Amino acid sequence: MSQQFDVVVIGAGPGGYIAAIRAAQLGKTVACIEEWKNPAGALKLGGTCLNVGCIPSKALLASSEEFENASHHLEQHGIDVEGVKIDIAKMMSRKDGIVEKMTSGIEYLFKKNKITWLKGHGKFVGNSDAGLRIEVSGEGEPEVVVAKNVIIATGSKARHLPNVPVDNKIVADNEGALAFDAVPKKLAVIGAGVIGLELGSVWRRLGAEVTVLEALPQFLGAADEAVAKEAAKLFKKQGLDIHLGININEVKTTGEGVTIAYTDKDGNAKTLEADRLIVSVGRVPNTDNLGLESIGLKANERGFIDVDDHCRTTVPNVYAIGDVVRGPMLAHKAEDEGVMVAELIDEQKPHIDYNCIPWVIYTEPEIAWVGKTEQQLKAEGREVKTGQFPFSINGRALGIAKPDGFVKMIADAKTDELLGVHIIAANASDLIAEAVVAMEFKAASEDIGRICHPHPSLSEVMREAALGVEKRSLNK
């Protein structure tokens, strides 16, 4: 007889494992299907994010930042350092140790919450009176389990360019770029999005000469124009050579390197030679080989599964969350959707305000925002007022030698409701949380302006920007 569960989650990335834990907390019998294997061939939970995405990339960003600080920025503190060297193998070992700790932690949480880990590939094979039938294959004999409810949380994979084979040695996607065994002298990056900028920053700090080729004519088009302009200026100053409006014509690889033929924004044919190439041109949903047709479901023309505002598919008791559905491909968005769906299955009435999901780019300085940009609001015909305050006159920012950037707040011109908060600064990923809380509670800029912030702290700039909406910043 097949194993039966109240909830089966397909995929154990941030959306999937969180959905499984929340459903278990609510008293459901839960199984989670996962087939991910690390380079050593061991099955691991956590999906792309924990294994080859968010967690390892932030570990390398931190290591490379420490190296750059020791090499170039400690002198201003009166600290002389000579002969700074980087041990790439040790840096990678530290990264791998963090990944192992995090993925093992999820395994512990599964045991704690009595979640069954079904090891292998999950695929729908039909419906029955008892529930949805899912085949799990890959480890031992295939088995079929039955679920009253299924949550599809299979995530996404890197989009590759046609006729550009990725070997994750010379030409790498996000996986290979997190595992280089040496610092390339010349590194090319196709794509100036989040992944391209973060991974380009890692290897630039460690000594690579980095050239970024971006197809779009504008830099960081999703960000507020003021933030994008500031970021472009700072990244250029750091040494990232970013070219916009590029059309890639041909990529040729040898055992030693790669040659990229492209056309620049003015129509000129150019050639770029590099030791390594990172391809970061977006991600595509993992919806193939799921057997969706066996239950009357299918992916749309872009490979996503269509859902409503509560992540319900068109098939009863089947939900989809995270990177396989509409909206930003962000781990924390997937987590929130996982919690929402688990609570819906429990007949609660949860809700997500997608306008209050923050975005973060972990460059230096970091970039973070929540809500709408000024250009979006103006395109909607909305009257707004803005306040902006720099970190260059903030005591804490000067003390830690990170004075770059600013906070920009946008509020409704009549009601003062906060509509967007945009930050480029050290620790922007942490600072943005205050803005998320404020927007969830429909706060006005005045509300933040009247809240006492600790001194000296980076958070004071949040308050000053809020006061700036009414043109009454206290320290400018």
Automatic annotation (TrEMBL):
Domain (Pyridine nucleotide-disulphide oxidoreductase dimerisation) ranges: 357-466
Q: Where does NAD(+) bind?
A: 191-198, 214, 282
The note describing how and how many cofactors are bound reads:
Binds 1 FAD per subunit.
Give the matching InterPro entries.
Class-I_Pyr_Nuc-Dis_Oxidored, FAD/NAD-bd_sf, FAD/NAD-binding_dom, FAD/NAD-linked_Rdtase_dimer_sf, Lipoamide_DH, Pyr_nuc-diS_OxRdtase, Pyr_nucl-diS_OxRdtase_dimer, Pyr_OxRdtase_I_AS
Positions annotated as active site in the UniProt record = 455 (proton acceptor)
Encoding gene, per UniProt annotation = lpdA
Which keywords fit this entry according to its UniProt record?
Answer: Cytoplasm, Disulfide bond, FAD, Flavoprotein, NAD, Nucleotide-binding, Oxidoreductase, Redox-active center
> Further remark, if any?
The active site is a redox-active disulfide bond.
* Flavoprotein listed as a keyword: yes
The record's subcellular location field reads:
Cytoplasm
- Organism, by scientific name, is Trinickia symbiotica
Which prosthetic group or cofactor does it need?
Answer: FAD
Catalytic activity annotation: N(6)-[(R)-dihydrolipoyl]-L-lysyl-[protein] + NAD(+) = N(6)-[(R)-lipoyl]-L-lysyl-[protein] + NADH + H(+)
Q: Which cysteines are joined by disulfide bonds?
A: 49-54
**What are its GO cellular component terms?**
cytoplasm
Family, per entry: Belongs to the class-I pyridine nucleotide-disulfide oxidoreductase family.
EC class name: oxidoreductase
Instruction: Write the Enzyme Commission number(s) for this entry.
Output: 1.8.1.4
Question: Which residues does the UniProt record annotate as the domain FAD/NAD(P)-binding?
Answer: 5-338
Could you tell me what this protein is called? Answer: Dihydrolipoyl dehydrogenase
Q: One biological-process term from Gene Ontology?
A: 2-oxoglutarate metabolic process
- Please tell me whether the keyword Flavoprotein is annotated for this protein: yes
Recorded hits in Pfam families, A to Z, give: Pyr_redox_2, Pyr_redox_dim
